[in-house]
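Instructor's aside before we start: the two examples that follow are unrelated to each other. I chose them only because their records fit on one page, so don't look for a connection. First example below.
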Amino acid sequence: MNSLFSAAAIGPYSLKHRVVMAPLTRMRSSDGNVPNDLMAAYYAQRTTDGGLIVSEATPVSPRGYGYAKGR
């Protein structure tokens, strides 16, 4: 059994541990689904040396948000 804190390779990426942050539906982007400083700060606060964060996706249509957008 591999240790959670042992190195791993995922495709071309070398990770120093196996703790991966899963994608979230934070919807922090600006109008037009443009990434912004808030998103950069959010992920920078959660990053680790040699870790992997699978970031949120951008909806491909107005109906793809999964909930009513209050804008």
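Example two begins here.
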Amino acid sequence: MIRLAPSILSADFSRLGEQVQTIERAGAHVIHVDVMDGHFVPNITFGAGVMKSLLGKTKLPFDVHLMIENPDQYLEDFATDDTEFITVHAEACTHLHRTIQHIKSMGIKAGVSLNPATPLDVLEYILEDLDLVLIMSVNPGFGGQKFIPSALHKIRELKKMKNERNPNLIIEIDGGITLDNIKEVTDAGVELVVAGSSVFGADDIEKRVGEFLNIFK
């Protein structure tokens, strides 16, 4: 099953609760939470408080993507009963295995994200411990960027690794996903799709979610 995770990075924060309820009503599966610190990436978004403000307003689980330095310092802030995934960047972790084990110890699925220029080789000794790998198809830090085509090759190679070593691994994509390229990335092996501006930037958000879900069928 392919799941849609709209990113609230692109939502209207003056209507955040309302818009999250809209994507839930339309059939979205997960809320993607992009956390940026202005150090690991050149932008600042929000912290755990904004995510927790949605508790009780939606039944959708959280998919937390930490684009921050020293993620270990903040993992527990994002651990809630509604948090399904916490994903950290391989490039930001000094002791990646320890970080992954910390996430798992809280009963949360653990993911690793790779920037466009980061090879799959960094997963060699951690792949079997992961629940999810997030392939960045833009350089992290800003919404609304264009999809980097080389991500498709990386997804296909990751799918081979998954089939050989960790069949339950979830492959996620984030960056520049639109109705025009979504079929291509899911055909390559993606099972969890992050879409930000292409969902929340639509004139009719509910209709746009439906359009994505129709492609998944």
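The chain has a mean pLDDT of 96.
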